[in-house]
Amino acid sequence: MSPSTPTAACRSEECLVACALDGAAFELRPGTTREVRLATPEDKARVMDTLFGLRPVRPGELSLFGRDAADLAPDERLALNRRLAAVFAEGGLISNLKVWENLVLPACWASRTGPSPFEAEALELFDDLGLDADLAGRLPSRLTCFERKAIAFVRGLLTHPDAMVFDSVLEHLSEEERRRAARFEELFRARCMRGAILRIEVAHARAGHHA
Amino acid sequence: MATPTRDNAFNPISRQDGYYSLLMAAAKRGSAFRAWPTRAVLMKQIYFTGVQAVLPVALLAMITGTLVISEMTSVLGINTAFTTKVLLWIVIRELGPLLAAIVIIARSSTAIIAELALMRINGEISALYAMGVDPTGYLLVPRLIGVTLCVAILSIYFIATATLGGMLMSALFQAVPVYRLADQFLAMANPWELGYAVLKSTVFGVVIATVACYHGWNVSQSVNAIPQVVTQGVMRSIFLVFLLDALFAYALFRL
Fold it and tell me: How far is CA B46 from the centre of its chain?
């Protein structure tokens, strides 16, 4: 990986995310799409962990919504995580919750309401993605890889985030599933016009899957 | 600002700080109950720990009550006053809280430790944090409250079932007049005794829940570690419950 100089730039709200890790320097502005291709899965994990506060950051390494992540108290960091949403490579669903509970968990947590306000929007998104409504009663272990990613996408979209992070979203999908997954960005754009999209991929994995 | 370590970056409960820090971290997040998901977890916890334990606790209580009364009757004959006094001492003061706690350790502590450990290893606790859901408030607070409530309520249920069941079984099989036992029991029963049992059970509940959450939360990143943390958590809970029981007995004796 080529080293880059850490920067604490991008301190305005107009810049949603600015990352200055070695080998992964990027900015994310409202309404834009960025793709970050990393050399190894370990590099990808490091960037994801940094973005979501799962590893310590040094001053200047990451700026979130105009704030240096190193200066954030844990509760502030948690609050900023609610403005990001992610579709993790394996979905990142909670295994002991049914799909419906997974779907509404972050939205209910953030809004302090029950699940009913999100029902109509979730069903509409299920329709848009061609998902069977019966999935809602299943446990994540009984879903396919595509279904897990699609549920994670719907879960993220229900929170109306400022930015959506797609972590190797096309990995381990069939051709048909990739076509369906390609709709994720379109649906996100339709619902969050000023939202930003960040695709994080491992370079060799992506090349392999698109061959 | 100091550079955060991985533990304090997203985990307020480090392995070194122990049970107390977990309890304090959970206590600071009482507001988590404003969120529907936390209340849903609490309901599930009460169902699995309390409601599903009703039958095993009832059976254990019936057997215990019968054993206490039948042993007393076989040693002392039909001496209702003394039998009732012993029932009161043993069941309310000691066996009710202790056996209810042991049933919860066997059924729910193991489940909580394994569930949290698996969530940690599968990266689900990190996923919660990444979604902006506070893992301490969402996972630990409802488990601590649910288990504590259930231990206290199941202890009262154990005491009621053991005394009533014991009296009925003795009346059936040993011709001890149940009304005499009941009269004696009501005459001797003291609300303070029940208050003492509830206080003791509540303390047991807090300890059981804290130990279970701590060991499940602090598992190392390997599935092989799950049986180890389950065993450690269960043994630690049993030891602490017996130690506290002895301290309560000593305190009562001194009073």
Answer: 12
Burial (0-12, 13-18, 19+ Cβ within 10 Å), A161: buried
B interface with A, Cβ–Cβ < 8 A, is: 1, 3-6, 8-10, 12, 34-37, 40, 115, 118-119, 122-124, 126-134, 138
Q: How far is B30 from chain A (nearest CA, A)?
A: 14
Task: Indicate the domain borders of chain B.
Answer: 50-254
Q: Which of the residues A62, A77, A90, A94 would you substitute to probe the B interface, choosing the one with the greatest number of B C-beta atoms within 10 Å?
A: A94
pLDDT in tens, A105-126: 999 999 999 999 999 999 999 9
The per-residue pLDDT for B16 is 56
DSSP lists the bridge partners of residue A86 as A165
What is the Cα–Cα distance from A127 to B214, expressed in whole angstroms? 42
Give the DSSP letter string of B144-166.
Answer: HHHHHHHHHHHHHHHHHHHHHHH
Q: Which residue in the set B4, B35, B129 is minimally distant from A81, CB to CB?
A: B129
- For A156-206, the pLDDT digits (tens) are 999 999 999 999 888 888 898 998 888 999 999 998 888 999 999 998 654
Q: Do A56 and B4 touch (CB under 8 A)?
A: yes
* Complete DSSP assignment for A169-200: TTTT--HHHHHHHTHHHHHHHHH-TT-EEEEE
Question: Measured between alpha carbons, how far is residue B82 from residues A23, B72, B85, B89 in Å?
Answer: 81, 8, 5, 11
* Length of chain A, in residues: 211
Asked whether residue B253 carries a pLDDT value surpassing 70, the answer given is: yes
Contacts of B195 (CB under 8 A, 6+ apart): none
Note whether B97 and B204 are within 8 A (CB).
Answer: yes
With a CB cutoff of 8 Å and minimum separation 6, the contacts of B210 are B19, B22, B23, B144
Select from A56, A71, A104 the Cβ nearest to the Cβ of B6: A56
The domains found in chain A, sorted by start residue, are 30-56+74-210 (3.40.50.300)
